[in-house]
Design brief:
The chain has 184 residues and is an alpha+beta fold. Helices cover 21% and strands 33% of the residues. Strands 2-3-4-5-6 form a 5-stranded mixed β-sheet. A two-stranded antiparallel ribbon has the order 1-7. The radius of gyration is 28 Å and the shape is elongated. The N and C termini lie far apart (80 Å). The structure holds zinc ion (2 copies). One zinc ion binds next to loops.
C-alpha cells in the first residue's frame, strides 16, 4: 500500500485527512534484498496537492564499520513530503508543476507512490559508520580475528603509552597513601 489512489482525497476539501497502516517489503538498497517497512501514513489535502506524513520503521542490512560483519540496522523514518498532482482530478487536464526541483508527483491515474521517498529517507537514515553494537570490539589489527568472538592468539600488546601512564598514576597514588599512613 505504498501506492495509494488519492482521487477521492483530491476532491475533498483542504485539510481533509486519510490515515493508512502499512506493512510492505520495499527494495531500499536497490539490490533486491527487500526490507519490511511498517508504520502509519497520513495524507492531508493541501491547497496545492497532498501532504504525506509517515512514521515508519524498517531494517536494512549494513556492514559494521569496525568488525565488517553484516548486521540488521533498525531505522526510523519520519517522512514529510508534499505531492503534486500532474492531472486535474475533475477535468483530466494536465497541471503545471511547481517550480521546485525533484518534487514528488501524483501520477495521471491519481496514484501517490511513497516508495521513492521511503528509499531516499532510508538511505539518509543509515549511519555513516554503522556499528553492529555500541561496544563492538572490532578486528585484531595483526591477525584480523573478530574480537567480538573472544580474544585472538596474538601476544598481548606491550608498551602502549596509555597503560604505562595509568600505572605511574596508580603507583604514585598508592605511595602517597602509604606515606600518609606512615606519617600518622
Ligand atoms: Zn561490529
Ligand atoms: Zn590477533
Amino acid at each position: 500500500m505504498m501506492r495509494i489512489n488519492v482521487s477521492q482525497l483530491l476532491k475533498a476539501p483542504i485539510g481533509s485527512i486519510r490515515s493508512y497502516k502499512v506493512s510492505e517489503i520495499i527494495d531500499i538498497a536497490g539490490d533486491d534484498s527487500g526490507s519490511m517497512v511498517q508504520g502509519e501514513i497520513k495524507l492531508m489535502r493541501t491547497d496545492r496537492g497532498i501532504l504525506a506524513k509517515a512514521a515508519l520503521h524498517t531494517e536494512v542490512e549494513v556492514t559494521c564499520s569496525r568488525c565488517l560483519n553484516l548486521f540488521s540496522c533498525p531505522l526510523t523514518l519520519n517522512i514529510e513530503e508534499e505531492y503534486f498532482p500532474t492531472v486535474d482530478v475533475v477535468g483530466g487536464t494536465a497541471l503545471p508543476l511547481p517550480d521546485e526541483p525533484s518534487c514528488f508527483t501524483i501520477d495521471e491515474h491519481h496514484i501517490l507512490d511513497l516508495t521513492e521517498a521511503i528509499r531516499q529517507y532510508a538511505l539518509l537514515a543509515i549511519p555513516m559508520k554503522p556499528l553492529c553494537r555500541a561496544n563492538c570490539a572490532g578486528l585484531c589489527p595483526d591477525c584480523g580475528y573478530n574480537l567480538n568472538q573472544g580474544p585472538c592468539s596474538c601476544p598481548p600488546q606491550r608498551g602502549d603509552p596509555r597503560w604505562s601512564k595509568l600505572k605511574e598514576l596508580s603507583l604514585t597514588s598508592d605511595k602517597s597513601v602509604n606515606e600518609r599512613k606512615g606519617a600518622e
